[in-house]
Amino acid sequence: MKVYPVSRINIKGLYFIETDDLGRYLGYQIDEYENSLILVDHYVFAAGYSGKFIVEIQHPKKQDGMSVGSSYYIIPFHDTYTNSPQDGIIGPLTLKEYNMKKYELKIDHVIWKEFN
């Protein structure tokens, strides 16, 4: 089954949230031809940025479609094209682990992007 993107919202630079028939995911554009990679799979609940990092909250789903809680991710920000944007991703994290890592990395104010 082929899944087609429905909408794309820029988070910062080459990072975006894309929505398709299965839900939302965090992607990264790897070149000027708009080729991209999925960094965090469905279902992205919230995403934003702070300085050198993209932050993301995922509500992963079990096979029956029910959410199994929240996972948190901290993604190093690349402001130029790279073929390995997944290198250095921290997560999935629990809320407690996420808050500890935010403190350690000095991530203070996150600018959250709105999307429906």
Tell me the number of helical segments per DSSP (H or I, 4 or more residues long): 1
How much helical structure, as a percent, in the residues? under 10%
Q: How far apart are the first and last residues' alpha carbons, in Å?
A: 24 Å
Number of strands: 9
Q: Tell me the strand percentage band.
A: 35-45%
- Secondary-structure element series: EEEEEEEEHE
Summed over residues and divided by their number, the pLDDT gives a mean of: 87
- Contiguous runs where pLDDT drops below 50 for at least 5 residues: none
Largest sheet: 5 strands, antiparallel
Numbering strands along the chain, what is their spatial order in the largest sheet?
8-7-6-5-9
Number of domains: 1
- What kind of assembly state do the chains in view correspond to? single chain
Tertiary shape: globular
Summing up helix and strand content along with how strands pair, one would put the structural category as: mainly beta
CA radius of gyration is 14 Å
